[in-house]
């Protein structure tokens, strides 16, 4: 039996906040594909991108791209208010992704949602346990990268590059 599908990256979906994401538009696209008789939706890698914003240059094999989190769903869950999103600038042209604007503003909005998140939630605790093999190291790496102004790992202090346990523990 022959099948067919479509290649379209998540970021190419219509999005109200600077980029396509896992939102209502994604579900509508899946419904469209089914109605059109398509069997597959092929996407590009969905990891968090680094310099150049290429989906093929990611910080992690496992971590998802924060740009693909639906801000509307965070409003529905009570983690954000609509005005938190509307105050942020995600780019001027809805037909183009302004990665600089996303980098500067989307993380600010996501941090607001994080402040309202219930870290005692059993689902969150289960997620941490199920992903213990990579999550802590990824979080540490990203925190170090942020603390170093986004610079390359090669430009960090030697104690961090060589993973001095004493230095890493102090940083944690």
Written account of the structure:
The chain is mostly helical and 172 residues long. It has 8 helices and 2 strands. The chain has a two-stranded parallel ribbon. Helix 1 links the parallel strand 1 and strand 2. The longest helix has 17 residues, at 99-115. It is globular.
Features:
globular; 3% strand; mainly alpha; single chain; 172 residues; 8 helices; two-stranded parallel sheet
Taking pLDDT < 50 over at least 5 consecutive residues as the criterion, the unreliable ranges are: none
Instruction: Tell me the Rg in angstroms.
Output: 18 Å
Distance between the termini: 54 Å
Residues in helices, as a percent range: 40-55%
Which series of helices and strands comes N to C?
EHEHHHHHHH
Report the strand count.
2
> Based on CA inertia axes, which overall geometry fits?
globular
* Strand percent estimate: under 5%
Structural class: mainly alpha
The major sheet is characterized as:
2 strands, parallel
Mean pLDDT: 94
> For the largest beta sheet, what order do the strands appear in spatially?
1-2
Output the number of helix runs: 8
Question: What's the short story on this structure?
Answer:
The chain has helices spanning 24-35, 71-76, 82-86, 99-115, 122-130, 135-147, 158-161, 165-171; strands at 5-7, 40-42.
């Amino acid at each position: 039996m022959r099948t067919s599908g479509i290649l379209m990256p998540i970021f190419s979906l219509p999005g109200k906040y600077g980029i396509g994401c896992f939102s209502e538009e994604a579900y509508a696209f899946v419904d469209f594909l089914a109605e059109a008789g398509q069997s597959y939706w092929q996407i590009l890698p969905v990891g968090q991108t680094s310099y150049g914003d290429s989906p093929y240059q990611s910080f992690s094999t496992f971590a998802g791209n924060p740009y693909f989190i639906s801000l509307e769903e965070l409003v529905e869950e009570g983690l954000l208010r609509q005005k938190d999103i509307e105050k942020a600038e995600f780019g001027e042209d809805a037909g183009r992704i302004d990665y600089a604007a996303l980098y500067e503003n989307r993380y600010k909005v996501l941090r607001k949602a994080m402040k309202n998140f219930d870290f005692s939630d059993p689902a969150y605790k289960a997620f941490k346990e199920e992903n213990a093999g990579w999550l802590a190291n990824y979080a540490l790496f990203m925190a170090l990268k942020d603390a170093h102004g986004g610079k390359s790992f090669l430009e960090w202090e030697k104690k961090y590059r060589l993973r001095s346990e004493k230095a890493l523990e102090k940083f944690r």
